[in-house]
Amino acid sequence: LLALVCAIVLNLAVSALPTSVTKLDTTAMKMFDLSEQTLETLSDLDSEVEIYWIVRTGAEDTYIQTLLGLYSEKSGNLKVTKKDPDVAATFVQQYYDAAEVQDNSLVVKRGNRYQCVPYSDIFVVDQMEMIMTGEQNFTFEGEGAVSLAAFTLHV
User: What is the pLDDT along the chain (155 residues), one digit of tens a residue?
Assistant: First the structure.
């Protein structure tokens, strides 16, 4: 019984830790080590930036979830909110055509200004590989896409 209680307490303590502590980046390209430029952009945010994660419940991409967790940890002025397009259709239609929005797309907003970051800008198809082999290989460009949107709204 004591072992079970200890396991529960330990699990609760670890789940409260930030993503940067609980997830080790073992990806070959260090996809979840934010660049110095991104960290600088996040530290320079002097007003609130909201990232709306447009995704149906259960369709959350783990790469995007981890990236957004890192972003919100690194800046007190950045807030991430999920919006299910089936539940918040009116909200989503302010930014995306309902027929075109893909799960795991983002809206980065600061005040009245916003920038849409579609899923296709986060996971980019290697066009050359597709032409040469006919295979679709994707590159995760999440940090660049989100940072560019945040930076564009910041200046």
Answer: 766 655 565 665 555 544 444 444 445 544 668 999 899 888 888 888 999 999 999 999 999 999 999 999 998 889 999 999 999 999 999 999 877 889 999 999 999 999 999 999 999 887 777 677 788 778 899 999 998 898 888 66
Question: Do 77 and 48 meet the contact criterion of CB atoms below 8 Å apart?
Answer: yes
Q: How far is 64 from 53, CA to CA, in rounded Å?
A: 9
DSSP one-letter string for 66-107: HHHHHHHHH-TTEEEEEE-TTTSHHHHHTTS-TTT--TTEEE
Q: Rounded CA gap, 27 and 31, in Å?
A: 6
Supply 154's token pair: 């910041």
Q: At what angle do helices 142-154 and 62-74 cross, to 10 degrees?
A: 40
Encode 1-27: b = buried (16+ Cβ within 10 Å), e = exposed: eeeeeeeeeeeeeeeeeebbeeeeeee
